[in-house]
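Field reference: sequence -> structure
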Amino acid sequence: MGSYDELAAQLGVAEAFLADRPEEQALLRRLSHEVFLANSEIASPGNSSKGGHRIEARHVRRLEEETDRLSASLEAVHSFVLPRGGPGAAHLQYARAVARRAERNLWALNAAEPQREALLQWANRLSSFLFALALVVNRAHGFTEIPPDYTV
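Structure field:
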């Protein structure tokens, strides 16, 4: 749960750096609500099976659709890229890294306490969404991605 708490805070920081991007701010605000749904489900798994607050298939679909929509506006990325750019995108890249850690923690929890499939799928799609959003924000602010230099 701590990783998702950290993610929620990082999404708030990223949103603060996107004052000139209201559409992206709205996406992050909605995603922040979803992170709280995920945390609620993780904290009280018994409640989620009885109609409590939880991540559902519609959340997974929406993340997939948003990722596809964002990615369609970008040139294909054919390599890893350095996590950087403008302040908003840099914070989104940090949020992506936290989301990946949170997903790994969720899968470790899943081994001991099985989690619902929708929650696991949502956690998996989250980092791809944040990556695509970071690229879109970087492009909007005139930054281009830099692939790693493996010869340094």
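Note: Residues 2-140 form a domain with the Hypothetical Protein Ta1238; Chain: A; fold (CATH 1.20.1200.10).
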